[in-house]
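Researcher: Good morning. I'm working through a list of sequences from a screen, and I'd like to move beyond sequence-only analysis. For each chain I'm collecting a predicted structure so we can compare shapes side by side. This is the next one on the list. No need for commentary yet; just the structure.
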Amino acid sequence: MADTHSLSSSNNNHVPVLFSFSVFSRPSSVPVGSGYEVLTQKFLSIFGSQIDVHRKFMIQEFSEEWGQYVDLPKGFAVSGKCKLRLVPLQVDMPTLGNLSPATTVFFCCDMQERFRPAIKYFGDIISVGQRLLQGARILGIPVIVSEQYPKGLGSTVQEIDLSGVRMVFPKTKFSMVLPEVEATLAEIPGARRIVLFGVETHVCIQQTALDLIGRGFEVHIVADATSSRSMMDRMFALERLARSGIIVTTSESILLQLVADKDHPKFKEIQNLIKASAPESGLLSKV
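Model: Good morning. Structure tokens for this chain:
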């Protein structure tokens, strides 16, 4: 569409197309005359592990005339070099919030030594974080860990066992959603849902969660494994995030949802983790 020059028979009547989805772009080619169905299949073949096939999407083409992407007209067929992108449609309905190990990734945010004296109930947050990471190891769930400016704020606290985690990375940005993290997520087949915990609730947790849902991920924030220096900031952030379509839940709920059945082969190991109730970390008192 953007370039209607005839093609030589040497490229077998294929035309170059730049396919884009989320933050990713891949050059490829399709036969001249390809319509919506062929293009949809092409997007799936390129970005299949990152596309939730249960969602609805639309394809848009970049318009040189308007300088932006526009919806494909009815009966569209590729006739020349062009740029296309796949856009998920926003559905105004509450998410079901189902979790399974095959589609879940854990994000552990900035659980660092210098925060210890400042964060409310930090000891409880560490304890619940340990429980979650043990559960992730038992169930084979990938874990991504961030450290905010570790040169000044120190490394992740020693109590947190990082053995087997997929990635530990330093950052200065408050959000964990950096290009290297997105690249790692793209390498994890089926990653759709993020379980997020750490500090601080109203800063790095909040900004990470909003960035993730903006990229189509379902986000579960573990309320008893995240905190701030101020309980006021913590509680208002959790309320704001819940109103934004993010699931605010607890560590025990997460772990039991991931096994789903007492006959699950790992149920006994998970049960042992939660035999003692998790500390409530000030969530009930709100003071």
